[in-house]
Amino acid sequence: MKDVVDQLASEKSEHVEKLIEWLKIPSVSTDSSLKGEVRRAGQWIEEELSSAGFETRLDDTDGHPICLAQWTGAEGAPTLLIYGHYDVQPPEPLDLWRHGAFEPTLEGDDLVARGATDDKGQALALVRGVCGVLRSRGSLPINVKFVIEGEEEIGSPNLTGYLEAHKDELSADVALIADCSQFGPGMPAITVGLKGLVYLEIHLQGPNRDLHSGSFGGAVENPANALTRILGSLRDDKGHITIPGFYEKVRDLTEEERAAIRELNFDEEGFRTDLEVPMVHGEEGYSTLERKWARPTLDINGLLSGWTGEGAKTVLPAHASAKMSMRLVPDQDPDEIADLVVQHLKSICPETCSIDVHCHHGAKPVLVEQNSPWLDATSRAIEKGFGKAPVMIREGGSIPVVSDLKATLGMDTILLGLGLPDDNAHSPNEKFHLPDYQKGIETMAWLLDEMASV
Q1: Counting beta carbons within 10 angstroms of the beta carbon of residue 205, is it exposed (0 to 12), middle (13 to 18) or buried (19 or more)?
Q2: Which of 35, 88, 143, 263 could form a disulfide with 115 if both were Cys (CB 3.0 to 4.6 A apart)?
């Protein structure tokens, strides 16, 4: 495989040019006005795979399409299913970007653009690695299938049904996803745990219209006041979530797991200074990494009420709303937690307002089986590609497809991280470190070789 890796190393400029081309497409899945652009991003990656020799198609769903690509010419060899997504988060707030969000810009060794690391850059690294082997050799040492969707950032509403409908066609020995981070610069990692997710939208209605705060203040409930009281009551001053039953099924870290986290020597002061916060904060009794990786959280993601334009307007708003997410850990169930939280919110809403709670997407928490020949093969490939063996880490994020792949197709997933913790995923000035992009491409080539021997 070294000859192929050397060839991939000589094609660095082309790899970057291809990524820039894809990143220019504003494939924001939550923006209905960009539906055509989302589809164009799917067509782009389909063509990339087709031109390398994969059998491809773009399957329509009730939302955005899914790219399916297969090469199954390695009879008797293992089959790898690779998942990725071509949709991206909205770029707002636009004024905080140093350049246009969809105008990929090189800043030293970093490529800055929306989707650079989440997930176009990481997904394309896998595609370029596999396609490089196929172009050089004319065949692959194992069978490879790709499922690359356009709805991950909105909770993959059509993916579970798609997996079920194409169960036989998608059968494989193991799945691979690159949508995570390394532990730090020069510290490659395999993610062995992900948090689950519950996402809610809360609406409080007061009077039938906005009112003069002088004429009506004190006589009519202000829904903004009521909502802030409700939200403020959901956590105590020790960072503990106060919703009854919320922690009932939380699986506590073992002493061995806590010791393993301590051995990673996380730079908490560097973490704090990078974020420019006075001090770290979270649930009392746990370290920063334990809170990020293995303790459930509750966060307000957005608030809206009243007058938010320039200057003053003395208004008593008729309506107040909030968006709120909870990250879950084993063995919490997102449906159970959603029910608990909705009932609690309704029980503490004052009678002076009406409340409506809408549940958006959710995901189950995941722990990856570490005693696995596929994980061992990935570790060896990473060591060859990055020059250093990976560490095993958890992530605070959620990737709903991991549990779907297990439940629907019965396969485990390897979570490879090519990004860095400071890549600004979901934030302005998202970036991807191009040396890691190249290492990811070369690691993917090595991985095909390693998996062929399992």
Answers
A1: middle
A2: 88
Q: What is the CATH number of domain 2-194+365-452?
A: 3.40.630.10
Neighbours of 133 (CB within 10 A): 26
User: Cα Rg for the chain, rounded, in angstroms?
Assistant: 23
User: What's the whole-model pTM score?
Assistant: 0.89
Q: In whole angstroms, give the CA distance from residue 245 to residue 235.
A: 14
Quick: pLDDT tens for 181-208: 999 999 999 999 999 999 999 999 999 9
pLDDT in tens, 290-329: 999 999 999 999 999 999 999 999 999 999 999 999 999 9
Q: What residue spans in the chain does CATH classification 3.40.630.10 cover?
A: 2-194+365-452
Query: Bridge partners of 323?
Result: 201, 302
The string of DSSP letters for 307-321 reads --SSS---EE-SEEE
CATH of domain 196-250+296-363: 3.30.70.360
* Inter-residue contact 15 to 23 (CB < 8 Å): no
User: What is the distance between the alpha carbons of residues 206 and 208, in angstroms, rounded to a whole number?
Assistant: 7
Characterise 53 by phi-psi region: left (phi > 0), alpha (psi -120 to 50), beta (else): left
* Termini Cα distance of the chain: 16
Judge whether residue 361 has pLDDT over 90. Answer: no
